[in-house]
Amino acid sequence: MGSPVEHGAQAERTRLAWRRTVLSGTVCALLLFRLAFERGLDEAGALGLALSLLCWLVLLLVAQRRIRAMDRQDPVAVARTLAVVTITGVLMGLLGVLLILW
Amino acid sequence: MLARVRNWFDPREVHETGQTPDYRFSLANERTFLAWIRTGLAMIGGGLVVAQFLPPMAVPHMTKILGVALILLGAGCALRAVDHWIRCEIAMRNGRPLPPSRFPAVLALVVTVGSLALLFEVFIDWYRAR
Hints:
The complex is a heterodimer. By secondary structure, chain A is mostly helical. Chain A has one domain. Chain A is 80% helix and 0% strand. Chain A starts with 9 loop residues before the first helix and ends with a helix. The model of chain A has no long low-confidence stretch (mean pLDDT 90). By secondary structure, chain B is mostly helical. Chain B has one domain. In chain B, helix 2 packs antiparallel against helix 3. The interface between A and B is large, with 38 and 44 residues.
């Protein structure tokens, strides 16, 4: 925070944006867990529960790594991180569709 | 399009063009991406809530249709977020203007039309219940 090159606490704001994103992902994951438990954990329910738990853990891990390494400039790693976050989001959506329709 | 999808997973190609921009711009681009991801997650969460907690409506299976539609819209938001992030990154590296996008306008229209349709549905329910 005290470093002279830091303008407008950019790194801090980005860290907080990551935290908010993890929070949103957690809400989605909890709703998915509930949807899976509600149907009594048949094949689709168990699969949905396991995969949504995996998605949530991956999101948590990836975000934590990015938050820790915010000051290191590695654009290629960032691009991969963002791709992984997108995949977890889309996968959570698809699991939701699976649990709702099947 | 496929080349861009490849760039999501193998971004080295992107980072060989132009020069690395000021880190503040990179972080701002990243925050914009995260904001879009949250928008997508909010839609997915909203779809899950609609499918789980809403009582049945006048049109049969309406809650399921609405939930799935919201979830698909949210997933689309997430995919578009990473695509837009890459395009902004390439533009910034090459000193070009940021790419224009119709997506926010289209999303606004879809949400408006969806809300109006839902309002209509609520009125039908209300009328029938009287």
